[in-house]
Amino acid sequence: MFPCTHPAGSSDSVATFHLDSVNMAITSANNVFTDAFAKGDSLGVSNCYAKNGCIMPSGSPKICGKDGIAGFFMGAKKMGMASIKLTTVEITGGKELVSEEGTYEISGADGKVLDKGKYLVNWKQEDGQWKMYRDIFNSDMPPAHMPAT
Asked: For residue 53, which of 137, 132, 119, 138 has the smallest C-alpha distance?
């Protein structure tokens, strides 16, 4: 199980907001997230989210809470998704809320790309750790029933 934690830093860094240190914390948390997903640890994945965190996948209603999030990612694994690669494009914000824009690529066990797209995650601090609060992602690939443009 992965707790989705990263070094909290000194007490001075808690009092003073530094976007660079938040960027490092988010990179670390994203690594924990992708490692947990690759190992099929849906609880570890859900621990990367705030207690009242929500995901908003394309083509699906909003899913909130750790149980719902864990179930969603467990279902993704059962559908044959083996790994997720996250690439941060930009991080902006302040000490109350930080937004991460990025791209994702999902691969199957054979390494074949199953999906790729973009995401936007709002992060907030919870118990001294940066956690995903709102996570929306959607595919760049056309639906299977539509021709590619």
From this structure: 132
**Amino acid identity at 47:** N
Query: H or E element: which one contains 21?
Result: helix 19-38
Dist CA 92 CA 100 (whole Å):
7
Q: Which of 32, 33, 39, 31 is nearest to 109 (CA)?
A: 39
DSSP string, 116-141: EEEEEEEEEEETTEEEEEEEEEEESS
Per-residue pLDDT tens for 76-105? 999 999 999 999 999 999 999 999 999 999
**What is residue 64's DSSP assignment?**
E
Query: Model pTM?
Result: 0.84
